[in-house]
Each structure stands twice: as C-alpha cells, then as structure tokens.
User: Fold this.
Amino acid sequence: MSTEPDVKPLVYNGRADTESISSSSDDGAVQSPLIDTRLSRRSFFAAAGAMGIGAMGAGGASILASKSASAQSTDWTQPGNNNHVIELQEASSFPGGEVKIDFFGHCAIKITSPSGATILFDPWRDDPSGAWGLWFKNEFPETLVDITMSTHTHFDHDAIHRPQSTMVLDRMVGNFEFADLKITGFADKHACIAPGWYKWTNALKEFGVEGCPPNNIGHMDMVVYLVETGGIRTLIWGDNRADPAEGFWDAIGQVDVLTLPVDGSEHILGYGQADAIVERLKPKIVIPTHYLAESTTYTLSTLAPADDWVKAQKSYSMLDSASLSLAAEEVSAMDREFMYFGGNVQTT
Assistant:
C-alpha cells in the first residue's frame, strides 16, 4: 500500500495544477514540503491571498511578510469630488482680482487665482527609505486643491499623494491652461554641487551615480514652472541649478514673483548664486523657500532659517502670516521686494 498522500489536482481557471511547494537546503537537497502537498503552488498563493495571510510553514512560522501589501496613494479614499473643477471648466468668463499665495513650509506653495482655481507645488514628506533621516515633524496636510504639481522626484518635493487634489501634473513640461490659469513647465537640472558646508551632493558619488549633467541620474532632473494668473507671473524655481543654459532665461521672460531655495546653510543655492539670479530676472517680489521653519522642519535636515539672507537685502518684509494676497497693479510698482514667511506655515 502506498504511503503517499492522495493528491487531488485542484482546478484553477479551468485546468488542473498539481505542482506542490517544497523547500531545499543550501546543497540543493529537497526537504519536506513547506505546506500540505495537497495544495499546488498556484492554489496555495490564491488561497493565502483570499484569506489575507502569508504562507505558513511547520509550527505556524510565516515565510512571507506578514505585513499586508497596500498602495501608497490613498487618493481614491479622499472626500469630496471634482464639482469645483467642473464649475470652472464651464465658466465662460473669469473675474479679475488678487492672487493669493499660501506657504506650507519648505518649498510647498499654493497659488489661488482670482477665479478660485488652486495649484499646490512640491508637497513634502520624509525620505521613505530612511537614508536621509528625519526632516519633517508631521505629515503634509491633506489640503484641498484643484491641481498638485511637483518640480522633481526628491522626497522633500514629491508627496503628491497627500493633497486632496482633482488633478496631478507631476513634472509637467510644456503648457497647460485651465480656467484663468496658464502654467508653463521648463525642463532643466537640479543644483548638483552643494555650495554650503554640508556637501550632500557627495552622497551621489558614494551611491555610484552622477549628479551633474549631461549624464546625471534621473532624479536630478528638474522642472521650473511659470504660473500666469491675475496679471501676475510667478516662477517656481524648485531646486534648479543657478546656471541654466541661455535659452532657459530667454524662454522665461518677465517674472513678477520669484521663489528661490535659499537658507542659512546654503543647501541648494549659495547667497551669491541667488543674488545673481535675482539680478538677472529682476522680479518684483522674491519669496525664499527650502529653509528651516521650526513649525515643520527638524534641525536633522541640516537646513537653517533664511533670515540672514533676507535681512541683507535692500528692501524686505517679515510676514506675520502664512498667506499673502497680491494685486497686479501693486506688484507692478515693486522692485525686488523680499517677502519672507519665516516660521509661518499653513497646517490644513
């Protein structure tokens, strides 16, 4: 009489599958089955998935990760809908008025057009790999916006899953128009040589990749955005290099509001580099970004406040809130006015 178990093929999608799962030692010898041999390989994983468990060996030890798999994005669970976008889409005309800028810390800027259309740039998060340490004290707020955009794929700019957003235009190059907004994306490159005391760009060499063009690794690609609305042209610099090609400057044209990543550690741009960009573009308003705001950012980020750079300018304003409203007529009369949010950030 045979002592083998009575193996009955299990039917999967209309065909029998009798291949069972066995383990092997380092020398290749086949060991005892990890699970009951009456279950085929395919049938086992189908059953495990249906029950929401990992594969179990003798004694109940898990041989698959016990943590259930889940998608990072939770956009499908967000409340609300796209009714606001539909209303703007169907409008035949749009009112004039002020442009609102809200600061969410680091490089996260929300622009609201006179019609109420909203864009959020560069929501942040901690590095999911843990390699770059703990930067932020909280998760980015699940704020409601029409459009979310990212300048590049670094963790402190790419939490595009966090906002409750109808549209996500990740690293968009070219033109996009909606309601009373016109957005133009210009492809360029991330700053690749750290000008400050903390030479973070040396890590790229340690990882065996090139940070500087033309053979830079992909995450050092950048998109700079020009937003036109309410008669105001706002340039979102992101972490772009200080010396883009001449055609880049020609394409941008006049800039009314310029955001620049400058902090006391000179992490992305050095003071001299930033001053040169301001001198070349001659914006009406300059808004510092990418600095340490104590309400959102840990000192482990190695960043510092931007106070020293701001206070060295000819004309500056230390803002007392995280919101700024701008009228085109008033902006046109300004000349390189530095407006600094400091530690004031939006939290919702």
